[in-house]
Amino acid sequence: MDIVLTLVVNPERSGDLNEACRHIESINVFSDINIHVLAKHCSIDITFKAEYFSEANEIISGAMAQYPHVDWCLQPDLPARRKRMLIADMDSTMITVECIDELADFVGAKEQVSRITEAAMRGELDFEDALKERVALLRGLPTEKLETCYRERIKIMHGAKALVQTMAANGAFTALVSGGFTFFTERVSAEIGFKDHRANTLEINEGSLTGCVVEPICGASAKLEALHEYCDDLGLTAYQVLAVGDGANDIPMLQAAGLGVAYHAKPKTAAATHAAVRNGDLSTLLYFQGYARDEFVGL
Fold this sequence. Notes:
By secondary structure, the chain is of the alpha/beta class. The protein is built from twelve helices and twelve strands. It has helices at residues 14-25, 53-64, 99-105, 110-121, 127-136, 144-153, 160-169, 182-192, 220-234, 251-256, 267-272, 284-288; strands at 2-8, 31-39, 43-49, 71-76, 85-88, 173-181, 196-200, 202-205, 208-213, 241-245, 259-263, 275-277. Helix 3 (99-105) packs antiparallel against helix 4 and helix 4 (110-121) runs antiparallel to helix 5. The model has no long low-confidence stretch (mean pLDDT 96).
C-alpha cells in the first residue's frame, strides 16, 4: 500500500530532519521511496510502499523515537488527505492559556483551580464534575472581568490563523468546540476565522457569575457529538475530519476523526491519537495534510 510520512522540524534543527530522512530511506522493507519538500529546512513528505500499514507504523515509531525534535505523522497516501473539516479545542490549543485558570486569578483562586484543571486534562478527574467545582469558585466575579481577562490574558496560539484560514480557503468547514466558555469562544473564533463555535455558558445574575454553568455541559461526549453532527450536516465522513486538542476530554473526538492530532498534549491524550505535535506550532497540521509552505494563508 502507498504510505506517506510527514516530518516537520524547527529550521534551526534542519540537521535532524536530514538525518531522520536518511534513516527512513535506509529501511529496506520499504520500496519506491520518494521525497517531496513542503518547506525548505522545515518539512518533507516521504512516500513509500509497504505491505501492511500496522507494520510500517511500528517500524517508523521505533525509528522516529531517535529524533525527539522532529514532529511526524504517518498516514495512508490517499486523496482525502486534505481534510474537509477542522474541529478544534480552544484552551491550550488555539489559545495559549486555560481561560478558567485566568478567571480564577481575579478571585485569588488561580493556584487551586489550575491544579484541578491539570488533573482533569490528564484524565484523572471527571471533566464535568471538575468543571462545576472550578466554576463554583468564580461565584461573585463581575462580568466585566471576563472582558478584562480576554483583553489582557488571551493570546492566540502561533500558527492558529494559518491553520484555520488555509483550510477555509481550500473549502474546509472549521469549528471551535471547547470545554471552556462561550464568552471566549465567540471572540476567539471571530479573531482566528472559525465558521462556528460551541462551548459552555456561564450563568450570570445581576452582573456577576453565579458560580454555576448552564446545562448541558460541553465535555468529551458533547465534543464527539458535535463532530458527528457537523459531518451529518455537511455530508462528510469522519475520515474527512481533522481534529486537534490537548486534554483527556478531547480523546473521543480525536479518535473519531480521520486525523486526530494531540497538540502539546497530556501523555494520555498523546498516546491515544493518530499523531502528536510536541515541538512545532499549529501550522504543523497543514504540513501533515500535505500543504506546502507557499500555500499557507493568514500568516
